[in-house]
Amino acid sequence: MDQNQNLNAPSSMVPPPPGEQTPNASAAPLQAEPAVSPQNEIPPQAAIPPQTNYYAQNPYYKPAPEGKGQAITGMVLGICSIVLSSLGYIGFICGILGIIFSVIGKKKCTAVFCRTGRGMAIAGLVCSIVGLVFSTLYILLIAALFEFVLGGLSAYGYNYYF
After folding, report:
1. Cβ(75)–Cβ(123) under 8 Å?
2. For residue 91, which of 134, 142, 141, 145 has the smallest C-alpha distance?
3. Residue 89 half-sphere exposure, CB side, CA atoms within 13 Å?
4. What share of the chain is helix, strand, coil (3-state, %, to 5)?
């Protein structure tokens, strides 16, 4: 930096030369630390105790039963099979999968004591069977109507061979 530029700049912008104090610095002299006497000497530290696990598991915490997830899945698929039974094969597939998951969830909940999971598995099994029956009846109804329409048309001379 050029020295002429420092002279033209305002005094608040110019850094002080090395070794000098700024006018804002405290002018208090540095005090020496008091000598340590035997009366105020710090005693030696005792051995540090081993660290304990402050995040230990709660003794009242019970993990979720193992079969509860399959039971919930079976119940959801059972409800979906009832709702989607008018779509034919989609409700049929949901019903079969719901039966499978409900049976697996019920077996796992029987092995491990869980009441809610077992109840959901039974509800899923019932809903899946009902949805499967509705889907089967719907598929048979559509097939019968299809045959009736085609059979009726063949009486008028229309022959459809599939």
Report:
1. yes
2. 134
3. 1
4. 55, 0, 45
Say if residues 49 and 96 touch (Cβ distance below 8 Å).
no
Q: What are phi and psi of 152, to 5 degrees?
A: -70, -35
Provide the residue type at 139 as one letter: I
d(C-alpha 148, C-alpha 152), whole Å: 6
| Locus of tokens 């110019």 | 14
Between CA 29 and CA 37 the distance in angstroms is 24
Name the pTM for this structure.
0.55
Dist CA 141 CA 135 (whole Å): 10
Q: Which residues of 73-100 are buried (b: 16+ CB within 10 A; e: fewer)?
A: bbbbbbbbbbebbeebeebbbbbbbbbe
| Residue 140 CA to its chain's centroid (Å) | 41
What would the pLDDT profile of 84-124 be if each residue is shown by its tens digit?
Answer: 998 878 999 999 999 999 999 888 887 666 777 888 999 99
Q: How does DSSP assign 56-94, residue by residue?
A: PPPTT--PPPTTHHHHHHHHHHHHHHHHGGGGTHHHHHH
